[in-house]
Hints:
This protein is mainly beta.
Amino acid sequence: MPNTPLSKCERVTVLWRDAVSYATWQDPEEVKKYKPAINCTEGRLFVENDDVIICFMTWNDTDIGDVCVIPKENVVKIVR
């Protein structure tokens, strides 16, 4: 990969909580045991502020792709 400003973005692994939904009938007692999913995103850190973490996984000389925007309140852990 060419040495561009994008290739210098820090590599990170972000663990984050996400909603889980089911469109079928469920036993209420079983539903009480459900927990949010923990997702793992690996990529380059593009933006980190009080509201969001934005990562991208692919890039070329000028553009980025496979962008993931994660609400900051959903972040469990960032591995740098």
